[in-house]
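call fold(seq) -> tokens
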Amino acid sequence: MNRIVFVILFAGLTKAGFTQNIIDWDGTYQLQLSDFRAKTSQIGDVNMFSLHSSTQMNFAYNMSSYEFMFTKNFNSKVSCTFTRDAASIIAPDDETAQHLLKFAQYEFDLAELYARRFRKKLFDEKGAFSNASFFKPLYDAIHKEFVERYDNAAKETEIGKNQSELDRLHTEVLREIQELSEFCKQCKPTKRKK
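ret:
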């Protein structure tokens, strides 16, 4: 039987950790400083700051050609995760660490927003006769949008230092996530009438 297997990752340059170290985005969990478990994490006694949040959007599926032809909903195949052992915060003091933590939460939520946009694109554009690479241009466009929005937010908020601007941007992202509620990982979107 013909089988199609595909895996794609985006966001921070991370390595997959053990399952107990991975937090799946669920809309309720808020990142804590204790989630940044990389050995390089340090708060105090440094003259710099750095954030590596280890947020990823993963896309993977394994199905026969027949299953692929009749699959329209790929929601469960797109995940947004945070890997604790790969995440690090370096900050000179607690206040800076808190700013970085809030920016990391923004990034985690932003990645979920783009995971939902990707799920929606897959749902809207997958046809019965689409080939296995139909998602590539969709992914490339979503990834580009994510990176641009992330970079702009990092610049506009000074990676979380400007809290009022970060709060404004974060509220926008959370509102957009709600608007795409049909495209959560466990959701089944309503079929569109043609």
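The radius of gyration is 18 Å.
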